[in-house]
Specification:
The structure is a single chain. The protein is an alpha/beta fold. The protein has four domains: 97-237 and 279-409, Alpha-Beta Barrel (TIM Barrel); 238-277, no CATH class; 413-475, no CATH class; 498-527, no CATH class. Helix content is 38%, strand content 14%. It has 20 helices and 19 strands. The strands form six sheets. It has an eight-stranded parallel beta barrel with strand order 5-6-9-10-14-15-17-18, surrounded by seven helices. Helix 2 (127-142) runs parallel beside helix 4 (174-184) and helix 10 (312-325) packs across helix 12. The relative contact order is 0.14.
């Protein structure tokens, strides 16, 4: 088991000269040769400096940690049964997998309705989010799920209009308006919705006021952090003018675009891009409670909090503050994943992994629930991409987990579908897709279903949205099948007895049965 990563990765476009032979301590080649051009991360850093920190090519990739954790979702299996059914009548005609109910209600009033228990959390100002937004928005809207507009969208908007105050305030942001409309244009009924997120810079720029009062957003999210990194949001920009504009709006920009030496280096091509960094927040109970009240006074109907893979004390703070403030939804993002420009080594080596973080959260929520305190609905994120992981997340976090957060996987679905359409337009589908036909209505399995629902509007649907729809429908059917096998026909019925651990360590950590201890009492009764 590799608990650490070598001094090279496909994510950073680096490799080791000695390939599979490297020091387990440093990650460097077992023999570092004088004469090597610098294939590895150390070598790349020798001539590109901090550029080598981040996954490459920037703006075109999402990244997930390569580190293997001692315990993950694969450390557990789902416990099926041949007896009974919960949530439907226990007979073979009623207890069929399409009958499994995947709809959920979130919030203190149950007012947030979802057709599927999926949330896309916090896609902000990164290039990869912007390139695929229309597909993500339309797909999420058509399936009645939540989509979160992440941090720094207004601040990065080239066309945004800000006041000339010493601390600029956003007056108009065409990009934020577009992100909201691209979801609402495809939403039918009352399921799903847009959530607007706020970080330190967003708070200073007045983004929430603009979003709530001018764009009519009713669900907002305060952000403490995320699972991929424990610093603020980061992107890169490739023009001096934009770097200077972002600095003027209050961002940290490196190298300093106002420095004459930097400007000269940019002009000759030595500097090709600038890093834009956000500030870290400073959490306190008083400030948190005050901001929640301010957002409600502005008109927010539901307030969320998103926190990252911080340690137990910060997790306890998040849960306690959410209880005191009657926060509707708490999203906890575990270590290991990322959708933007997260530092690669940080992504691998920082934070609490998913199983440990979810177990801690459930334990802390039990304390509040047993005391009769308010407990927020929980969304768990961090490396989830398939239906078995979704089922296990619900089981491990029962009864508090009401939905799962996924970002990298929906982005993948959106850009694959988008690229299929582009390849057809550019001369013909890829060989992988051509086996199904040479048109979208043959390649996409449920094209007919979408066309029947949308009618003439089908021509306007972003192909990325078709991809997200297909991906979500696959997850829905797979999840229903797992629920049927466990004889649980509603998400609220999934419990900790629906999984078992494959090792003693996993059982002890998560507090579920070891496989050889499952049903011991029932077995004794059956056998007499």
């Amino acid at each position: 088991m590799a608990l650490s990563t070598p001094n090279a990765s496909g994510a950073t476009e680096t490799r080791l000269r000695t390939r599979n032979s490297f020091s387990k301590l440093s990650g460097m080649c077992a023999t570092c040769l004088d004469g090597c051009p610098g294939y590895c991360e150390v070598g790349r850093s020798a001539f590109r400096g901090s550029e080598a920190i981040y996954p490459q090519p920037f703006g075109d990739v999402t990244a997930g940690a390569e580190k293997e954790y001692p315990i993950d979702y694969s450390s557990f299996n789902i416990n099926g049964s041949a007896v009974g059914a919960i949530g439907v009548e226990a007979n073979s005609d009623a207890a069929i997998f399409p009958a499994a109910d995947l709809e959920v209600s979130l919030g203190h009033d149950g007012g947030i309705k979802l057709g599927l228990p999926f949330v896309i959390p916090g896609l902000g100002s990164t290039d990869i989010a912007g390139k695929n937004w229309d597909g993500l928005a339309s797909g999420a809207a058509l399936t009645g799920t939540l989509l979160t507009i992440g941090e720094n969208v207004c601040g990065m908007d080239d066309e945004a209009d800000f006041s000339s105050d010493s601390v600029p305030q956003v007056k108009q942001s065409p990009e934020l308006r577009h992100r909201v409309r691209s979801f609402r244009d495809w939403q039918e009924g009352d399921k799903g919705g847009i959530v607007l997120q706020e970080n330190v810079e967003d708070g200073r720029l007045g983004v929430m006021r603009y979003g709530i009062e001018d764009l009519g957003i009713t669900m907002v999210e305060l952000k403490w952090g995320q699972g991929a990194k424990d610093i603020g949001g980061e992107v890169k920009v490739d023009t001096l003018a934009k770097a200077q504009r972002l600095k003027k709006r209050g961002y940290i920009v490196l190298p300093d675009p106002d420095n004459p030496n930097v400007q000269e280096a940019y002009e000759r091509g030595a500097i090709k891009e600038f890093e834009r960094h956000s500030r870290i927040g400073m959490v306190s109970e008083e400030a948190f409670m005050q901001r929640v009240q301010e957002l409600r006074d502005m008109g927010a109907k539901h307030v969320f909090l998103k926190t990252g893979a911080y340690g137990p004390a910060d997790l306890a703070r998040a849960i306690k503050y959410c209880s005191l403030a009657k926060i509707d939804v708490l999203t906890i993002d575990a270590a290991g994943g990322g959708t933007g420009m997260s530092p690669w080594r940080m992504m691998n080596e920082w934070g609490v992994p998913p199983i440990e973080l979810l177990t801690l959260a459930r334990t802390y929520m039990d304390v509040l629930a047993e005391r009769g305190d308010y407990v927020p609905d929980l969304v768990i994120a961090g490396g989830i991409a398939f239906e078995d992981q979704i089922f296990k997340a619900f089981a491990l976090g029962a009864p508090y987990v009401k939905a799962v957060g996924m970002a990298r996987a929906p982005i993948c679905a959106a850009h694959v579908a988008k690229n299929i359409a582009a390849s057809i337009k550019d001369g013909g589908p890829d060989k992988l897709h051509a086996q199904y036909g040479d048109r979208l209505n043959n390649i996409f399995l449920w094209f007919h279903e979408l066309k029947e629902a949308l009618g003439p509007r089908m021509e306007e649907l972003p192909t990325g949205g078709m991809g997200v729809y297909h991906y979500y429908m696959r997850l829905a059917q797979g999840l229903r099948q797992l629920m049927c096998g466990a004889r649980k026909f509603g998400l609220e019925h999934i419990g900790r007895d629906d999984i078992f651990a494959l090792t003693r360590d996993a059982a002890d950590l998560a507090g579920v049965n070891y496989v050889m201890d499952v049903d011991k009492d029932i077995v004794a009764e059956i056998l007499g």
